[in-house]
Amino acid sequence: MQRAGSGRPGRRPLSVRGARQTRRRPTGNHKVRIGVGRLLMVAALIAAGVKLVVVQGFEADALAARAESQRTTPQPIPAARGAILDRNNRQLAFSVESRVLYVIPSQLKKNWDDLVGKHQQPAGATFESMTADMAAFVHKVIGDESYGEKLDEPKMLEKLRSGDPYAELVQNVDPAKARVITEKWGGEIGADPRAVRLYPNGDLASNIIGAANWRKETKPPATHGILGLENSEDNTLAGRNGRRVVDTALGKDGVVIPGTERDLDPATPGSSLQLTIDTDTQYEAQRLLTDYKNRSGAKSASMVVMDARTSEIYALVNDKTYDPSNFGEASEDQRNNIAVTSPFEPGSVNKIVTASAAIEDGVVKPDTVIRVPGSIPVADVTVRDAWPHGPVDMTFTGVLAKSSNVGTLLTAQKVGEDKFAAMLNKFGLGQSTGSGLPGEAAGIVPPQGQWSGSTFGNLPIGQGLTMNLLQMAGMYQTIANDGLRVPPKIIRSEVGPDGTSKEPQRPDSVRVVSPETAKTVRDMLRATMQKVPTDPNQNGTGSSAALPGYQIAGKTGTAQTVDPACGCYSNSSYNITFAGILPADSPRFVVGIALLNTAPLPGNPASVSAAPLFHQVASYLTQRYQIPLSNPAEVPPATLMP
Asked: Basic and acidic residues: which segments have biased composition (predicted)?
């Protein structure tokens, strides 16, 4: 008998075998599909591996740089602007470092609930209460104003709640105060570097210094000059910008994320300018000129005080000035430095040209007697003296001191047109002085080839040509400096960030006349200040300029202005001028004065002569600079009319 369960080794129960036999074997198509799927999977894995190798190996640096560029941005660091100083290193203009506080209101509004906890706001705080806290804190730290900008807390609050992509809270903030604010509200309130240009003396010398302010539209934003030396010397003052890297918010505006600034390259400060101006002299000259101009009735006025040897400008003033910190409200007249930009017909101060040429050429001597009629015909015009007289004898010194037009023309005719024209050129008329002041107009001297018959009747008496105030004073500087014309100078030196100083290049000096001629003319011009109570015929035209104890040399001038209605000379409006040398025996200063478009008024000396103003300025200069008394202080009066 067979035992149950016995059978052939390895055989399975029928039921099992039957179940196995019922399974379907793969068909040919099925096998193909499985193979293709496996191949695709392998290919995808290979492609992914290759891409991973490329990304991690070959493209890693480029992709990292691209990702970094999406969140970091290089930015310039503005250089500190150089100062402008007077000759004694007093500050006339300087910059202080500041910050502009800004926020990204859109992020504040979006993330305010997170910020409440971050900045330890009380339970139940809202977006409104948090922004109110921010505005109040900023106001508390800064105060009611910052560098002249008034703080408006409600306006700040409006900006914080605006939802705008960017908003400036306060323009100019002291860096220390800005740091207190950003430390409390770091990440929400940012501080960008900026500079504030300050002018501690207000409108003093503003026509020279000019104005500068922060200009956001420039590339890069920085303080740039708008007017005056601030503008013309902008490259010297501006320095070299540095560079930093910041993180910026995504978006086209690239707003800097507060607290992400990193310096890379520090900025190099600009050089400072030391001017020849003396602050005290500038102030006093401004005060005296403005007061005198108002009394004279002139439409405009200017004055210059120059060193007789070096031509350094100690003061250059106009009657109209402006506040450089608020230059946008200044009129064109206030901004205009008329002393150099507005040439005028000088009148009799120009007679120094005829005198210099005549003495240099030996045509006359100081005591040469000239028969002077009351008038003289020149081509189609008749030239008269300012006072009516018949034929009189005058010394050549008297011709100058009494400002005789006729006597001057008679002498100029002896000099001749060629030598007279050459002397105009030597004195620098019709040419820029090279002073370094922006906007200088060279004036007009008709070319000799274009002279008409009456031209030589006008030029010797200061009509028919124009000059600026520096040119006028420069003629007298030449005579004060023994015949050597030194171009006027306003910039004394450039002081680099390291403290080194260099003098800017200036035009060459010009020998105009010999030292002997210059001294002779200078001595003759002393007679202008002469006053002899016992003989009025010996009085000069500028006796009110005299200063007791000092010898003064100078010349008065009166020129008719052109009436625009007819294009002819006016009989009611004049340019009143004066140029003087202090002291005549040992020249230290030259002063030039111009009162333009003045109507003479009876009983008003200021409307007919600038000599009294010279007296006031000379009195101040002798005290300010402790100028020794002349030796001898009094000289015998010259003979003007024998």
From this structure: 500-509
pLDDT computed for residue 560 by the predictor: 93
Q: Is 348 a catalytic residue?
A: yes
Residue 611 has φ and ψ, to the nearest 5°, of -60, -40
Residue 177: C-alpha distances to residues 132, 139, 141, 151, 157 (Å): 19, 11, 6, 14, 19
Closest CA to 102 of 251, 267, 241, 249: 249
SS (H, E, C) 370-397: EEECCEEEECCEEEECCCCCCCEEEEHH
Q: How far apart are CA 253 and CA 258, in angstroms?
A: 15
Which two three-digit tokens encode residue 189? Answer: 């309130």
Would you say residue 474 has pLDDT above 80? yes
Check pLDDT > 90 for residue 619: yes
Number of H helices, E strands in the chain: 22, 25
> Of 417, 440, 402, which is closest to residue 532 (Cα–Cα)?
402
- Beta-carbon count within 10 A of 104 CB: 25
Among 186-190, 230-234, 324-328, 462-466, which is the least confidently predicted range? 186-190
With 0-12 CB in 10 A as exposed, 13-18 as middle and 19+ as buried, what is 135? Answer: buried
With 90 as the cut, is the pLDDT of residue 266 above it?
no
3-class DSSP state of 146: strand
Q: Are 552 and 622 in contact, with CB atoms under 8 Å apart?
A: no
E strands in 509-612: 510-511, 553-563, 568-582, 589-598
Q: What is the DSSP letter of 246?
A: E
Element (H, E) at 149: strand 149-150
pLDDT digits (tens, 9 = 90+) for 129-146: 888 988 999 999 999 988
Query: Are 521 and 479 contacting, i.e. CB atoms less than 8 angstroms apart?
Result: yes
Q: Which amino acid is at 450?
A: Q
The answer to whether the beta carbons of residues 231 and 438 sit under 8 Å apart is yes
Say how far apart CA 272 and CA 497 lie, in whole Å: 8
Cα separation, 231 vs 335, in Å, equals 13
The residue among 216 and 432 whose pLDDT is bigger is 432
pLDDT reported for residue 115? 74
Task: Of 467, 449, 461, 497, give the one whose Cα is nearest residue 340.
Answer: 467
**3-class DSSP assignment, residue 93:** strand
| Greater pLDDT, 17 or 634 | 634
Highest mean pLDDT among 14-28, 48-62, 489-503: 489-503
Per the model's pLDDT, the better-predicted residue between 133 and 514 turns out to be 514
Identify which has the larger pLDDT, 510 or 110: 510
In this predicted structure, what is the pLDDT of residue 256?
65
φ/ψ of residue 479, rounded to 5: -70, -35
**Exposure of 285 by Cβ count < 10 A (0-12 exposed, 13-18 middle, 19+ buried)?**
buried
CA distance 267 to 252: 27
Query: How many of the other CB atoms lie within 10 Å of CB of 514?
Result: 14
Please give the domain boundaries of the chain with CATH numbers for all domains. Answer: 74-275 (3.90.1310.10), 279-321+337-491+509-624 (3.40.710.10)
Dihedral angle, C-alpha 476, 481, 485, 487, nearest 10 °: -90
| Higher pLDDT pick, 76 / 256 | 76
* Options 348, 403, 435, 607, the catalytic residue: 348
